[in-house]
Amino acid sequence: MSHSVLIIGSGFGGIGMAIRLKRAGIHDFVILEKADELGGTWRDNTYPGAACDVPSHLYSFSFERKTDWTRRFPPQREILDYLRLCARKYGVLPHIRFGTEVTEARFDSGDGHTASVWRVSTRDGEELTARVLISACGQLNRPTLPAIEGRESFTGPSFHSARWDHGVDLRGKKVAVIGTGASAVQIVPEIAAEAGRLALFQRSAPYVIQKPDRPYRRWEKALLTAVPGAYELSRARIYALYESRALAFIKYPRLMGVMAKKFRRGLDTQVPDPALRGALVPGYPMGCKRVLISNDYYPTLTRPNVDLITDPIARVTPTGVTTENGTEHEADVIVYATGFLTTDFLAPMKISGLAGRELNDAWRHGAQAHLGITVSGFPNLFLLYGPYTNLGHNSIIYMLESQFRYVMGCLRALRAADLDWIDVRPDVLDAFEREMHERLRSTVWEAGCDSWYMNAEGKVVNNWPGFTFAYRRATRRPDPRQFRARRVEPHATPGMPRTTPQNGA
C-alpha cells in the first residue's frame, strides 16, 4: 500500500503532525501505531499520580485551546482525553492503523525510472511505501529495566512504572520501589498510604521543589472561556515565566544557586530528621539532572511505614531485595521506576538510507540530526522530538509545533520544485553537531553528573542548549542551501518519474 506520508507513532508529535497535514490539504497519509490506542507516553504511563510537570495551558496545542482544564498541572487521564479530542475533531482517527508495529524502514532510491520511496515493514509481515517518512516515536517510549542480579527470580508481581499492573492490590503489602526519578516522585506519595510498608531504593537523590499546583476555580474557567484573549494571555504569561528559567540552565548556571537555596529551605521544613534530610541532599549541581516538582514527596518519606534505602542493591531474591551491606528487604511487590532508553530514539527499528547505510551505523558515536529533524544520508526522513530538542525548562509541545512547520516547509519544497527527495548536506549536519556540543559545554547539563540526557559515550544528545523562541526562529523555514536534492525530470512518466541529481533543494 502506497502513501504520500507515513507517520510512526500517535502521541503529541504524530497527532499534531497529522493535523498540520490535513490543514494543508494533504490527506494521503497514514499513522502506524503499535498499540491499540493513541496517546504515546500519556497512554502508557497510567501509574498512580501520573501528571505533567508543565502547566496545562502551555502543555497543549496552540491551535486547539482548552479552557476547562481541571488543574494548573494536568493529570495523565485529562491529557490523554485532550489528545483523543484533537484526533476526533480534526479527522485524524481514520488515518491511524492501530496494532501495527514498524520493524524496519528502507529507503529505495529507485532505478532511474521510478521515484524513490520508503519501504516500511511491519511486525506482521506487511510492507507499505511512502514518499516521506516521519518518526514521531518520541524519547520516552521504551522502558528500561535495570540489570540487577536475580531480577527474574522474584516470585511476586513486578512491573515497570510505564507498564503499571492495575490488577495488583497494594493494600497492606510490602512494596519495593526502585528508582527516584520523575515517576517515583509521583508514585510514592500515592501508594504509601495504602501499602503496609514501602521501601524506596535511591541510587542518587533528586532535587525536588514545590509544585505550584491547584484546581482551577469555576469562575476562572468561565473567564477563560468568555473573555477574548484571556486564555492566550494566560498561556503567554506561563511561557514567559518558564522561558526565563533557561537563563539558569543554558546561560548562567550559577543562577541555579538561588534555586538550590530555595530547595534547601523547603527540604529543611518538610524533613525534620537530620539523618533522613542528609540522605535527600543531591551530590551534584542543581539542574544537571532533571529537576522534579512535588508537594508531598518529602512529607511521604517521613511516614512511619516508609523507608528510604540508600545502600546499593546487590541482587533481587525470590522474596525481596538485598543490598550490598547484606540486608534483605522483604517485598510482596516490586515497582521499577527506572526510566527509559532515551538516547536510542528510533530503536529498535532498523532504518536504512542511501546505499543501504543503517542509522545505527551513522549514529555509532551518538544520535545526531540537524535541528533534531533531518539526518544526512536519509532522504525524506524527518524526526519529531529528535536529538537536541528536549527541554529542561519549557513545554515540548512548543518545540513540536516548530518542527511541524519546518517539516511542512520541506514538503512544500518537494512539491513546488518537483523534487524526488531532499537530504540535509553532511557538512551542514557536522557543523550543527559541533555547534551543539560547543554550546552544551557551558550548560548545567554538563556540570558533572550522569543523566538520561547523555548517551553511552557521555555526550548530551537530548537537550536544546538555547531558548525555545530561538529554536522556533531557526526552524521558521528550511534553507534550500542546506540540502542536496534529486529532481524529477520534466519528461518523466507521471507516477513513474525518472530523476537526476541536483545540488540544493
Automatic annotation (TrEMBL):
Residues 480-490 have a biased composition (Basic and acidic residues). InterPro entries: FAD-bind_Monooxygenase_sf, FAD/NAD-bd_sf. It holds the Pfam family Pyr_redox_3. Residues 480-505 are annotated as: Disordered. This is NAD(P)/FAD-dependent oxidoreductase. It comes from Actinomadura fulvescens. The lineage of its organism: Bacteria, Bacillati, Actinomycetota, Actinomycetes, Streptosporangiales.
